[in-house]
Design brief:
The protein has helices at 2-24, 123-126, and strands spanning 42-46, 59-60, 65-66, 69-77, 80-86, 94-96, 101-108, 111-112, 118-121, 130-138, 155-161. The chain is of the alpha+beta class. It has one domain (42-161): CFA/I fimbrial subunit E, pilin domain (Immunoglobulin-like). A hairpin with a 4-residue loop joins strand 6 and strand 7 (101-108).
Length: 162
């Protein structure tokens, strides 16, 4: 029994000293890679790859309005037109604080998006590819609406054949 104990103590001490030494000299680098490569026939994606990840609508204390957001998209469908809609409809696209909401209006290439797919880029423009703006604007908040409001929703683009 003594031999086992004598053997275990140096082993534990060696294990502890090596882990302590490892922690002192520890250097790490987390690498997360993502590549989203669209097809040559159809795509609708923002020019700024970070758009939509952490956007802020600033509040103007003088006018009582929220600033709008604008993003340019590259859009292409070599086989027809492009339609778009908001998943869940316009009510899904609202700023919400847990009890109250502020409606958002999403306009893509001049077309107000709803729950129903509608043409946002016609066939002649989408075939070679074009750029179109998504503009998001908020309704003017009421005087009683304050605090942190957030929104998370999806705009869907459909390739519609000729």
């Amino acid at each position: 029994m003594f031999k086992k104990l004598a053997f275990a103590v140096p082993f534990v001490a060696a294990a502890l000293s090596s882990s302590v030494a490892y922690a002192v000299d520890d250097a790490r680098s987390a690498i997360n890679i993502k590549a989203d490569i669209p097809t040559k026939q159809f795509h609708a994606q923002p020019r700024d790859p970070n758009f939509g990840k952490d956007e802020t609508m600033n509040y103007n204390t003088v006018s009582g309005e929220l600033s709008s957001l604008r993003a340019t998209f590259d859009v292409k469908n070599t086989d027809g037109s492009v339609h778009a809609y908001i998943e869940g409809g316009p009510t899904a696209a609202s700023l919400y604080n847990g009890t109250d909401s502020i409606p958002l209006t999403n306009t893509f290439n001049g077309v107000v998006l709803t729950a129903t797919p509608q043409e946002v880029v016609d066939d002649p423009q989408s075939t070679p590819g074009t750029q179109a703006d998504l503009v998001i604007s908020a309704a003017k908040p009421a005087d009683t609406q304050n605090g942190l409001y957030t929104a998370s929703y999806t705009v869907i683009f459909d390739a519609v054949p000729r």
